[in-house]
Amino acid sequence: MGASEYPPLAEVRSHLRVTWYRSPIEPATLRRLMQRSDLQGWLQAGGHLALGVATGALVWWCWAGGLWLGFALALFAHGTVASFFTGVAPHELAHGTVFRTKRLNQVFLYLYSLLSWWDPFDYGTSHTYHHRYTLYPEGDRENLLPLHPSVGRTFLLQMFTINLLTKPGRNFTKGGLLSTLAITALGAFGMIGSTRAPIRQWIQALHLDQPAEAWKSMWWSRAQLLFHGTVVVVGLASGLWVLPLVISVAPFVANWLTYFVGLPQHCGLRDNVPDFRKSTRSMKLDPVSTFLYWRMNWHAEHHMYAGVPCYHLRKLARAIAADMPEPRTLIGAWREMLATWKRQQEDPGYQYDTPLPPTAGRTPHDGQDNLQRSIGELAPTGLR
User: Fold this and answer.
1) pTM to 2 decimals?
2) Do residues 138 and 7 touch, judged by C-beta distance below 8 A?
3) How many C-beta atoms lie closer than 10 Å to residue 279's C-beta?
4) What's the pLDDT tens digit per position in 13-22?
5) 3-class SS string, 326-354
6) What pLDDT, on the 0 to 100 scale, is given for residue 369?
7) What is the C-alpha to C-alpha distance for residues 161 and 159, in angstroms, rounded to an integer?
């Protein structure tokens, strides 16, 4: 279905009602898991930022000492850390569930978004629809299936070096460095750019639906250009060319890990189904990847109870484990996605149907309270 065939989002809101299946959980347990903590927030948000500062300082130190092999290795490590600034850190902060103190959520949201060329306003609108209508394309085109789990050599070369040339496709992204520059520059003038890419068509629909957020997005693009332009000018004028590399280019360096752990969220799974266990994939990851990914490897649990802070998702997973499919390993998820993609080349309508355990419930039900439906403080004013 082309973008022009989808009804306006205001019309979608008036007629599309999804009665989601949510795994049963004791209300007292859910209330406890939804408690936010400034300490936990500082450990996650402050810790990730501190790690980025440390790897950036290591890049600077190797550059200053002319240690070029160390410089390359440090830049790879710094890019790996900084690539999770893009989309991952702003995602949970946009939900408003990281810190108990609202102002801290906002400060870190804008800081991470500024450093990573992220647009928290377009994303806040998009992600609200994504949670309300997950993989119902009328109301959610943040991830438009089918998604291609690419492992092409040219693509992977960019993922392990500098992501220059990837372009926006069927999920929420500005693409590589060059397309990000172009999209941000156009956004500063209130322009969308080419709508041949499905995600740009989605942004256009969001702007028509929420013009106040589109206006904020325009001014945010201007702030990004001013900030990163200043970094580049100062770096080049002072001879410290490493400065823009550490700050402005870093989110596009070594994107390999964020790609490998991020794509399995929905890739290859079912759309138009009111069960997050069928449309969303959870995975077991190592502690470092889990931290950098802000615990979003527990992604089905996050969709089911989006008001639960990321640092409580593992406890939530344990509480509802008997009702959930077995979490994949990262390798298992990729094998599943690649096998699904191969079959989709012969049967375009095929989608992987995640098997559920015998103990799982299967019937969506009405009467879910506001606590269960909460997505935190994500929604912009026009969608509350």
Assistant:
1) 0.96
2) yes
3) 24
4) 999 999 999 9
5) CCEEHHHHHHHHHHHHHHHHHCCCCCCCC
6) 83
7) 6
